[in-house]
Amino acid sequence: MKDYIEERAVSIANYIIDSNATVRQTAKAFGVSKSTVHKDVTDRLMQINPALAKQARQVLDVNKSERHIRGGLATKEKYMHQHSGAV
After folding, report:
1. Cα 54 to Cα 1: distance, rounded to the nearest angstrom
2. Whether the Cβ atoms of residue 4 and residue 10 lie closer than 8 Å to each other
3. What is the pLDDT of residue 82?
């Protein structure tokens, strides 16, 4: 594996852990795809630093379990703004 990919995988994991970021937020911050973030954390990082990979995975698992709540809140907010502007 190339050095820059290993460094990116570690940086991504540290970012996720430090900022409690989602895969989508991390992908945007690093300018890569969601697939790349996921592969870096689940596959590549396990070979480089399994303990760090486990920590990052725990954050992502929590975010995944809460995503339906966040989506509902975002939709609610969207409609609140639409209705408040129409009144």
Report:
1. 20
2. no
3. 78
Residue whose structure tokens are 């460094």: 7
Give pLDDT, residue 18. Answer: 96
* 59 vs 79 pLDDT, higher one: 59
Instruction: Note the pLDDT tens digit of each residue in 43-68.
Output: 999 999 999 999 999 999 998 877 66
Instruction: Look up residue 55 and give its two tokens.
Output: 């920590």
SS (H, E, C) the chain: CCHHHHHHHHHHHHHHHHHCCCHHHHHHHHCCCHHHHHHHHHHHHHHHCHHHHHHHHHHHHHHHHHHHHHHHHHHHHHHHHHHHHHC
Amino acid at 20: N
**Alpha-carbon distance 40 to 57, whole Å?**
11
Tokens matching residue 46: 């396990």
